Amino acid sequence: MPATDTPHLRSFVCAAGHELRVTCRCLTEDLGSALDATFEELATRHPIVRAFQRERHAATSGPDTLGPSGGQRPLTVLRHSNDWRGVTWHDPGATVVWLCATGWHRSGQPDDAFQLFAQLKDEGRIWPTAEDYDSLAADRTEQFAAFLIDDAPRLLAMARAQPEVEQVLAIGQEPVALVVHVVETLEETFVAVSVQNISMEIYQILLVALYPERSFKDWRVEQRLPTRDLDYTRSEFCMSILHA
Questions:
Q1: Which distant-in-sequence residues (6+ apart) come within 8 Å of 16 by Cβ?
Q2: Relative orientation angle of helices 200-210 and 130-161, to the nearest 10 degrees
Q3: Is 82 helix (H, G, I), strand (E, B) or coil?
């Protein structure tokens, strides 16, 4: 993860370990924005998105749920001034807090935000859809490639500081494991990452970021890390390189 909160494409990547995103329905219907609008653009235009960033960058939920019990997928209320309300949902599996709906708050009026939220919830339209998760996956591939330029050398420095100890760093949202194994006067670096969400092309960019002066043919495929077996349930893939 980045050392500080960072907007990237349609996400706000939080140093706390999660992302903030706006659902496609909320983008188009509530905020009147294009599907490819970046989070930074949305925050500039909409006070409720700025409140979303402010209130959920460190905490994944708020104190008040929408409705008396919250249910299995509890929605929590987001407030900005007297006029704007929103609801957010934390998906722990995807490590994303979604802004699911926003609206103008006028108590007792038929178009009040809470009337809208209740209708969307009853219709099952308030939570993120497959379209939202498709756009999340696409952005995370680009996110990994963008963040590894700084994070890959940082991970290598961590592993060199503690040889033989596995170091793990989330680059974007993808955990990368790295072990530096000392062999006489050489060091052998092992790199493992799940290729469920990362293509081999992006994996090669990771290797270049670690050792830019070396060729891909200098790397070899490994069946395990020096510290453990690979997690094949996550499609973990490992390569190593010898370095002076």
A1: 57, 58
A2: 30
A3: coil
Short-list 97, 133, 100, 91, CA closest to 119 = 100
Where does the chain have alpha helices with state H? Answer: 24-25, 39-45, 47-56, 113-123, 130-161, 200-210
pTM beyond 0.90:
no
With tokens 């989070």, the residue in question is: 39
Buried b (16+ CB within 10 A) or exposed e, 144-172: bbbbbeebbeebbeebeeeeeebbebbbb
Would you say 60 and 67 are in contact if contact means Cβ atoms under 8 Å apart?
no
Tokens of 62: 């708020």
Read off the tokens for 11: 């996400």
Q: Give the closest residue to 2 by CA, choosing from 19, 22, 23.
A: 19
Q: How high is the pLDDT of residue 108? A: 66
β-sheet bridge partners, residue 18 = none
Work out the pLDDT band at 3, boundaries 50, 70, 90. Answer: low
Question: Mind listing the pLDDT tens digit for each residue in 51-95?
Answer: 999 999 999 998 888 876 556 789 999 999 888 999 999 999 999
Question: Token digits for 36?
Answer: 């490819």
- With CA atoms as reference, report the closest residue to 80 among 47, 53, 58: 47
Task: Read off the tokens for 211.
Answer: 């050792």
